[in-house]
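Morning - heme C inputs below, output right after.
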Amino acid sequence: MRQLLAISLTMITVSIATLGAQSSSEEGANAVLPWAYVLNEPTSNDTTAPDPNEVVTVPGSSVSMPRSEININNGPPDWHPDGHPTMPEVVAKGGGDGVVACGYCHLPNGQGKPENASLAGQPYSYIVQQMTDWRNGLRKTGEPRMGPPSFMERIGLAASDEEARIAADYFSSFDFKPWIRVVETDMVPETRFSGWIHKVIEGGGMEPIGTRIVETPEDLHRTELRDDASSFIAYVPTGAVARGEDLVNTGGGGKTETCTVCHGPQLRGLGPVPALAGRSPSYIARQLYDLQTGVRNGTWSDLMDEAVKNLSVENIVDIAAYTASLEP
Ligand code: HEC
Ligand code: HEC
């Protein structure tokens, strides 16, 4: 399989020159997958801002700080320093002009959040390749109005090779841990969009899930404090996991390709090909759609063409539900 992949990767570098990028739709991707490309609702929906001087902490941590210190300019709060190796400067504090601390969004242990991505345990060469694609303007988002992916585009443009390599070395050096609890259901708690994620409305009711995934923090308070030990729930439609398993493992009767050939048994990654198992279904859905529409058109992206070209929104929901349910 590794050999096959090496051959395909070589072929792609040859064929890329002849293949133009597919055109992206005029409308943002939020129109198609609003639950994955989250746009915030007007701030009037938010409760009053918490006291910036309040000293805060999280369970299992001996660290505490005034809330105002949790700030993108300060890098990530490091609540659990024993939970990861020592962060290099670019991850903890940021690098050159425009290179914001990777750990602020991706978290010190690289577990990531629905509005960004998990980096823990991804292959070193894959991470470096993605940074190169951003620098070359080949990886874009289908929904530029969604703040975090657009922010990542700017960081990717700004980061040097050296910074990309240091960050890749760090995040690939440890494993990704179970992070998503998948719950199949017909009804979900009502949520609103704020902070680029779904937040359960306190005292809200239940509503039909429809054809979507509702990924939300297990503990909103801890997630808002950027606690890298506080994980997520993904509500998915009843039956989605089994349908996704069929698509991934058999190609769903010609609808798509068998993913394990490239992504490895149990989708835990293979060579330079990224791992999918147990990762944020919101993120996975955005990538399947960005690859399908061609706004993500990196050096290796053509290898995904056959897998994504015929996927419907329901297929994307089912695949993301299944991949999220797998043990990393
Ligand atoms: C402001 C928040 C933010 C910061 C800071 C940030 N990222 Fe990201 N990153 C994102 C988002 C959002 C995505 C997902 C983009 C999408 O959904 O299309 C992402 C995705 C990625 C991916 C792709 C993961 C994959 O599986 O393909 C890599 C690699 C990455 N970031 C590396 C970095 C590095 C290295 C740094 C530090 C130099 C960094 N990021 C800093 C927000 C951030
Ligand atoms: C021929 C090999 C191949 C097959 C088959 C394949 N993939 Fe991929 N996949 C890749 C490569 C290579 C990448 C990295 C693309 C890039 O760098 O833009 C990728 C990237 C992805 C990503 C983005 C991951 C991330 O962290 O950003 C997702 C999601 C994905 N594949 C899902 C699937 C699914 C689901 C299937 C089966 C239905 C599948 N792939 C089949 C090779 C493959």
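Note: Confidence is low (pLDDT under 50) at residues 9-25.

O.
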